[in-house]
Amino acid sequence: METLSLSKKPSKSEQRIAEKSHEALSQILERIHATMTEIEIEETKEKLQIPSRALELLNEILRAMSQGKPISIVPVATEVTTQKAAEILGCSRPHLVKLLENGELDFIKVGRHRRIKFEDVVSYKQKMKAKQKSLLIEMMNSDEELGGYDS
């Protein structure tokens, strides 16, 4: 699995540069309508043909960096180990294995090892966050109805 990871939080200086670059690139992308574009590396004067979608991805990376977020880029069809999936979900590996065995997440077996599609792990995480948010709102509404927020 090929993963590009900037797992350390960007420095304040990197955040400032990323913010300026993100703003500039956002404006440039609004004017690009071709599927391919050419960019020039100032230091070497070399020109590169780049798919416009790659520039859009770069812009998203710059946005995340400007907000101080660590970044990982993983090819969508990538399969991850149970340990990596557990790390992504923020749970223990044994808990993840229970989720797999209960059919909450699809997996395949490679020999004795389970592999889970990265996109399935991310999708499951998003569903769980939405469910948590819904339950929190439900709890807050219930507390409000019971007068828990009266002063």
Characterization of this structure:
With 151 residues, this protein is α+β, with helices and mostly antiparallel strands. It is 53% helix and 19% strand. The chain contains 5 helices and 7 strands. It has helices at 12-31, 52-66, 82-89, 93-101, 118-145, and strands spanning 4-6, 36-41, 46-51, 71-73, 79-81, 108-110, 113-117. The strands form 3 sheets. Strands 5-7-6 form a 3-stranded antiparallel beta sheet. Helix 1 (12-31) runs antiparallel to helix 2 and helix 3 (82-89) crosses helix 4 (93-101). The protein is extended. Residues 11-20 have a biased composition (Basic and acidic residues). Residues 81-127 form the Helix-turn-helix domain. Residues 1-20 are annotated as: Disordered.
What spatial order of strands do you see in the largest sheet? 5-7-6
Number of helices: 5
Q: How many strands appear in the DSSP assignment?
A: 7
Shape: extended
* Low-pLDDT residue spans: none
Backbone CA Rg: 21 Å
